[in-house]
Amino acid sequence: MTAIDLGLPQLGGLDGVPTTDEPQKAKEYKSDQEVRWCPGCGDYVVLNAVQSFLPSLGLKRENIVFVSGIGCSSRFPYYMNTYGVHSIHGRAPAIATGLAVTRPDLSVWVVTGDGDALSIGGNHLIHTLRRNVNLKILLFNNRIYGLTKGQYSPTSEEGKVTKSTPMGSLDHPFNPVSLALGAEGTFVARALDSDRKGLTEVLRQAAEHRGSALVEIYQNCPIFNDGAFDVLKEQGEAERRLIPLEHGKPIRFGAEGEFGVVRSGFGSLEVAKVADVGEDALVTHDAHTDDPSYAFALSRLSTQDLSHTVTGVFRSVRRATYDDTARAQVQQAQDAKPADLGKLLHGRETWTVA
Amino acid sequence: MSTSVEGGTGNGANPGPNGHRTEVTKLDRVVIRFAGDSGDGMQLTGDRFTSEAAAFGNDLATLPNFPAEIRAPQGTLPGVSSFQLHFADYDILTPGDRPDVLVAMNPAALKANVKDLPRGGTLIVNTDEFTKRNLTKVGYESNPLESHELEDYLVHEVAMATLTQGALADTGLGKKDAERCKNMFALGLLSWMYHRPTEGTERFLREKFAKKPDLAEANILAFRAGWNYGETTEAFASTFQVAPAKLPRGTYRQITGNTALAYGLIAASQQAKLPMLLGTYPITPASDILHELSKHKNFGITTFQAEDEIAGIAAALGASYGGRLGVTSTSGPGVALKSETIGLAVMTELPLVIIDVQRGGPSTGLPTKTEQADLLQAMYGRNGESPVPIVAPRSPADCFDAAVEAVRIALKYRTPVMLLSDGAIANGSEPWLIPDVEELPDLTVKFASAPNAMDGSDEFWPYVRDTETLAREWAIPGTPGLQHRIGGLEKADGAGNISYDPDNHDRMVRLRQSKVDGVDVARLAVDDPSGEARVLALGWGSSYGPIGAACRRVRKSGMKIAQAHLRHLNPFPANLGDVLRAYDTVVVPEMNLGQLSLLLRGRYLVDVRSYTKVAGLPFKAEELADVFTNVINDSEGTDSANEHQLAATEAHE
Ligand code: SF4
């Protein structure tokens, strides 16, 4: 088989989506439906952040579509005054792929959860990421099954006692960022529901990325897994646990910036005290590193017990998207040969009965 | 083989170039079966002979039969691949029950097929493969060519490999490569025997091996060597002519079911002015639809080979939501995986076409064999009350019209539609009267463009319905002011917000059912030349051919039988109940255990006689003629018709 280089121009994530000069407000993005998440659910915060952020893109609201699967977070589209599909369990990335491929004038967002994206829909997620379809995927990770009332999820910690695991969960959990990078996702990021600023910044970069953007959002479920991420929010704890990434800056954290990330062993990274290693040893974050191994090494610094959690944009690289190239092939075929139905139906060998 | 002249004396004679005269016998129809090892190129040989017959203007029908394994162990029974071709000077309905001529390229092919050859049939054997080792491999203790085993047949022993190698001696091709061309030798010999035009095959070979001209020439040499062998040796007393068929006027081409189906989709997409997205996953015997559509991107077609069956249909549904023509293609196991998404399409009331090229089941079953056992899966294989219109083509060429019809229903009623083809018509081929593009139906749709809320607000309500079709409006993303949300949860009638209201759910379930029940479906036509038949043969899908051929036999024998064939399995034609009640007995042959019969009994409280078979192969006309004859006799309650039974099997099919 021969490989054909499609040599596509480099586009921005929103190129092709019609814009408007009318100023927009967050309110316009709220549908008239009553939001029905449990009081205190982290989903509210994310919904508000998204509704506040979208106006800044200046897109025509009718050209935005939210597609979700099944789970608490997947009710999201009902609350957005955009086009929306609340689909079936795990399949949102596949449905969104069909939409994105055929409609370059739409900004397509997928809302999913840890069960939806990583369990029942794991296959679609990794294939969407490897194809690099121009979709923005918001993965709400609460480390539990909420809608079905509290079974462990593929991101629950080992030994977790839930309704379905009274003696403790036996499953080894996924690190969603590692998984996405393993699938060579071109844009992979993480944010906390409580960090409005960090979340908004990640969403902005995701929207501008051409290709699949996976954003993992740590989201608290106060009903079935309350406080799962509390240590990342407590003053005194958060500073020494959270490792925020900023492109082009040395990776440094701690209340006084006393910790940093340095290289170690076979391409991996580790946390060190700046005082011990010196500032020059710190790794400068480069999200555009083409080799996903670097971002993967970063993702491994996040541990299930949250002793460290890396946030921000791990990886943001340019690669041709599936939808752009699929459309280019159709265009190429159309340019090469007019669509003549009569000719097609006749084929090459015919005979006539008089 | 029915001849128009008696015995072996032809009504014409042809002096060959070397002076010996070969009789020419006129026939009205012939069935040839090419059989060999999977690696012998029998499908290609059969295909080429089919093209020659088509180019000559015969009516024809074909039945490829090959193993699921790509290369089953060489020379074994499971490795046998065959291609049967029926061609005639009149309109025929089936690939033929049994071959008149069997070409056996090795002992395995002989063993697997000779039982189908009627006494007196012609057997052409490639003797080079009849070695002790090959014979033992398939359980022949002695060489059947040297015993009396084959004395009922007219046997031609031809050392095809040796002769081919001899013909190619000067080409510089290695022995092995030369031997590989023996299928073209066989084709050449048969082409001579049946006075077939040869230019098409030579042109085909030049194109197929355009990048390897030496192979092209070698194959052409082998092809000519086969022809010349027939002409110069005196082994063949007669050649045969089958005149062109007197088919309805028009321009024809040969087409397989899968190609016709792909073309139907392309035509429908053009007529609807909607670009198509095929979301699919490779599966036998449906993959050729993907292959075909992938070649025609210039018609605005996107083909998406997904990570699995579910993603294939999900992407198609996503495209439908975006205002495109979403199509997915698969076989039975794939439908099982797609069920949940079909349910979502039922709930969201979006157009979608699901193609199921049925194969033997359950589970992986018989991937390369045919069956009609997915009818109930198509009808009921989803959770909840989830009605879906079902359309089934009855022959390879009919796949074109069936595909256009499926798209028409999907678009008009905003519903997923099942198109039930099967392995026999998918790979089988026949002449196709090419339709006039100008006469294809207009399938254009109107997207919603304005708010439609029934409370007078300026909102868009997704579940406001057309009062006649009950279809909801199709408002596609990008339309200003019509932002709305749909999904798998039950929605309120009209406004379309999530609703758990018991009465609303009851209403919505009934509305979805009424919509499908109300699909405009043509009345069922009954073919009864006598107008006096008391027995009706009713079928659906690919059994049309054998049922029709069986009815011809029965009528030829002087008995009366009516035939009707269902294109629409859901909803049924409005007059179906009346048709069923108009006959004393309705006999329903199906390649399953009686799925249509179950539906008919349940729906109309009319008993039917179910005749079923699940052997992976189409019915034989002879077999069904016997069944019909027995049913007619039973229904008349006399034995007086018994004599007809024998006559029936001999009749003009
Ligand atoms: S169950 Fe948990 S995740 Fe679901 S809505 Fe309630 S709080 Fe939120």
TrEMBL record, chain A:
InterPro entries the UniProt entry points to: 2-oxoacid:Fd_oxidoreductase, THDP-binding, TPP_enzyme_TPP-bd
Sequence ranges of Low complexity compositional bias: 1-12
Annotated spans, Disordered: 1-23
Biological process (GO), any one: cellular respiration
A Pfam family: TPP_enzyme_C
Keyword Oxidoreductase carried by entry: yes
GO molecular-function terms, A-Z: magnesium ion binding; oxidoreductase activity, acting on the aldehyde or oxo group of donors, iron-sulfur protein as acceptor; thiamine pyrophosphate binding
Residue ranges annotated for the Thiamine pyrophosphate enzyme TPP-binding domain, each copy included: 70-217
Keywords: Oxidoreductase
Keyword Protease in annotation: no
Protein name: 2-oxoglutarate ferredoxin oxidoreductase subunit beta
Gene source species: Herbihabitans rhizosphaerae
Automatic annotation (TrEMBL), chain B:
Sequence ranges assigned to domain Pyruvate/ketoisovalerate oxidoreductase catalytic in this UniProt record: 39-226
GO biological process: response to oxidative stress
Domain Pyruvate flavodoxin/ferredoxin oxidoreductase pyrimidine binding, first and last residues per copy: 279-495
InterPro entries: 2-oxoacid/accept_OxRdtase_asu, Pyruvate:ferred/Flavod_OxRd, Pyrv/ketoisovalerate_OxRed_cat, Pyrv_Fd/Flavodoxin_OxRdtase_N, Pyrv_flavodox_OxRed_cen, THDP-binding, Transketo_C/PFOR_II
NCBIfam families: OAFO_sf
Single GO MF annotation: oxidoreductase activity, acting on the aldehyde or oxo group of donors
Record keywords: Oxidoreductase
Protein name, as recorded: 2-oxoglutarate ferredoxin oxidoreductase subunit alpha
Segments of this protein annotated with the region Disordered: 1-25
Source organism of this protein record: Herbihabitans rhizosphaerae
UniProt signal peptide: none
